[in-house]
Amino acid sequence: MKKLFLPILLLLVIINASAQNVQKTHQKAILVDTHNDVISNQLITKADLGKLQSEGNFDLVRAEQAGLDAQVFSIWCSGQYGNGTAYAFANREIDSLYALINRNQDKITLVRTSSQLKKVVKQKKLAAMIGVEGGHMIEDRLDYIDSLAKRGMIYLTLTWNNSTPWATSAKDETLHGDSLTHKGLTEFGKQVVKRLNDKGVMIDLSHPGEQTFYDVMATTTKPVIASHSCAYALAPHRRNLKDDQLKAIAKNGGVVFVNFYSGFVDTAYTAKHEAYLVKHKPELDSLVKIYNDYDLASIRLNAIHKTEADQFRPPLSMLIKHIDYMVKLMGADHVGIGSDFDGAESYPLGLDSVTDYYKITDELLKLHYSKKDIKKILGGNFIRVLKANVGK
After folding, report:
1. CA angle at 47 for the pair 338 and 32, rounded to the nearest 5°
2. Which of 90, 379, 386, 387 shows the smallest number of beta carbons within 10 Å?
């Protein structure tokens, strides 16, 4: 019995020491997530994000439990909003974030600079930031960039899936290339890039097409970001970045923040998910009528049929492969975390909410990543690129 007991005891000691190492490494890092869509959803659900929520991936209670130090909240509307409506919708979402902050001033503070971020982290509060997802929300006006920057915008995603008159999206360049009136940045698009540089607003290249991407790289004077994208070499989706794009961002001093969405992590997911949607189409149609939003309806459908939906979620190891691939190609200084939580219906198994970030730390330690590099990936790289754009 003693011969059996001692190895088991030793194993328990090793497991406990490993868990403590993960926790210590995770807590010492400044953890930053560059993309979360919960504010867009909150306008529909009316959820009080200051309280623990039974649905969704984020609230302030779970953020504190997760050790999340800084969150960039996505300000988004679809391409159906155009000039005369998109900018107003962006401000409505920002108002919603401001209201959340005002109701929870002991938990969350709006920041714009790296120095402000660090100060708020020391106060043990969540540093909130604003990323505007879609150039259509500036309505082809440079002064709207100025106004949004004053309200806290730290990055502008030059396009969403829809193109603007001055920049083309990955979706349109890939699927509708023959019908586009132009590809890439127009002269006004280059003015947008320069204005963003001047205002200290990071340029986000997660949604634009390849021509727009390279036009930006030839125009910008500041490091760029991709706020929520994966590696095309591992999952050839139009929203992911090819090796040459990844290398270009590294050369520019920028950072790619890895997206958790199952469809960008594993391209095999898409066909399985589409078959699942066909099977549950009547129920999905009913949910769309309730929420008036397809993405929210899809998220709710997966919650209802969780056991079935979980069967085609990719394993966590596939997400880690994207991180590891980028680190090996670009260097640990150019990779970060941009979950896309609350913006998709599915994430790898084990990643169900913000409370699961520590699992990434655990996996990187298992791959023998240094604690220094893990700290860079979890938040240090974001702080560096923010400072390089804002200047303080």
Report:
1. 20
2. 387
